[in-house]
């Protein structure tokens, strides 16, 4: 089981004092948070991709490359790479380069994003969102696995005898998660390729995500990748902790009420009842996170959103200290004890290289 944090990189005014960080301050805070993630023993740091205010992470690989140079163990990921508006050739190049710089500690989560105007900004039509996601990934998948690619599709100019450089490290492409909050087509796509499916279930009731994950698991088995329990699933989550639950609720409420996405909508109590958001003590975070398994089955990656809604950096770092000291050790122990036999671990580059080599040896043995 892999545990980590993700950021959406919002620049939001702190509702308790009216201060707004500069873009520079927010970017530097995100990198500080990533370094803290490694310090407390987390497995993954992931960043979103946005091209509009109030968000700043327009170049995820630039940020992750900086973090790669300053960490040793942390898996560096995206919580969204826009497969619809980025050229798949550039994605192939950028993430292969990052993979080399980070010695394999890289994966990515493909998604369509939640900002409609981004499509025309990059010359695309939002009405083609699903076809773009399907076609662009079909090309990306080939670019990482074939040394020379001939390609012709609907949405980009043809390729003739094209080689994407650099080639993936050790001949093994970065692991791909397909992220979705609403689209069964994306769950189907993840299952077809034998990739991971990340259900960022931080906004909708759990029943909706149960259906998406069940579809993904069923189609994973249908396409011959193994039993449905062997499918690779990731989940989102959110928390705000203090030692005393009442202190957590009192401190977090103004941030929740004014958050750029769900502020001025449902109450904090309604939202915590229907989504993974936990506002309370470390024990409450432990109990609610462990309950995700009862709803979705065994899964491989849990990412938490912790630095949104104008929370100051000092507060976020305090949250991470609580996570590392009081929550993470218990979650690791309990999830390991409850994991069913045969459920795979979270994907790593080293494990995937070993799997590739073992498969090659077995194939060679059968041909002798």
TrEMBL record:
Oxidoreductase listed as a keyword: yes
Oxidoreductase among keywords: yes
CDD domains: Tetrahydromethanopterin_reductase
Its EC number(s): 1.-.-.-
Region (Disordered): 339-368
Keyword terms of this UniProt record: Monooxygenase, Oxidoreductase
Domain of life (superkingdom): Bacteria
GO molecular function, one term: oxidoreductase activity
Residue ranges of domain Luciferase-like in the record: 1-297
The protein's name: LLM class flavin-dependent oxidoreductase
């Amino acid at each position: 089981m892999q545990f980590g944090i993700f950021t959406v990189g919002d620049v939001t005014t702190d509702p308790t004092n009216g201060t707004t960080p500069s873009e520079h301050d927010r970017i530097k805070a995100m990198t500080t948070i990533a370094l803290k993630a490694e310090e407390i023993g987390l497995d993954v740091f992931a960043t979103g991709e946005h091209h509009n205010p109030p968000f700043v992470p327009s170049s995820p690989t630039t940020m992750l490359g900086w973090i790669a140079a300053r960490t040793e163990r942390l898996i560096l990921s995206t919580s969204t790479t826009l497969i619809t508006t980025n050229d798949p050739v550039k994605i192939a190049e950028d993430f292969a380069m990052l993979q080399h710089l980070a010695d394999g500690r890289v994966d990515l989560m493909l998604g369509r994003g939640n900002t409609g105007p981004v499509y025309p900004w990059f010359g695309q039509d939002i009405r083609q969102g699903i076809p773009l996601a399907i076609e662009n990934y079909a090309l990306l998948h080939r670019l990482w696995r074939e040394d020379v690619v001939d390609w012709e599709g609907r949405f980009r100019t043809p390729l003739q005898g094209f080689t994407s450089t650099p080639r993936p490290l050790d001949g093994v492409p970065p692991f791909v998660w397909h992220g979705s909050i609403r689209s069964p087509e994306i769950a189907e796509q993840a299952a077809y390729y034998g990739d991971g499916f990340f259900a960022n279930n931080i906004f909708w009731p759990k029943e909706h995500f149960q259906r998406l994950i069940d579809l993904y698991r069923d189609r994973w088995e249908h396409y011959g990748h193994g039993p449905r329990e062997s499918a690779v699933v990731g989940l989102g989550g959110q928390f705000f902790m203090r030692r005393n639950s009442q202190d957590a609720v009192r401190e977090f409420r103004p941030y929740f009420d004014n958050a750029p996405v769900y502020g001025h909508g449902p109450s904090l109590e309604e939202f915590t009842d229907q989504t993974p958001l936990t506002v309370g003590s470390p024990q409450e975070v432990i109990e609610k996170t462990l309950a995700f398994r009862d709803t979705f089955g065994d899964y491989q990656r849990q990412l938490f959103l912790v630095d949104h809604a104008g929370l100051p950096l000092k507060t976020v770092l305090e949250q991470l200290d609580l996570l590392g000291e009081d929550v993470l050790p218990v979650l690791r122990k309990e999830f390991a004890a409850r994991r069913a036999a045969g459920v795979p671990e979270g994907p790593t580059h080293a494990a995937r290289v070993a799997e590739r080599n073992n498969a090659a040896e077995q194939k060679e043995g059968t041909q002798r």
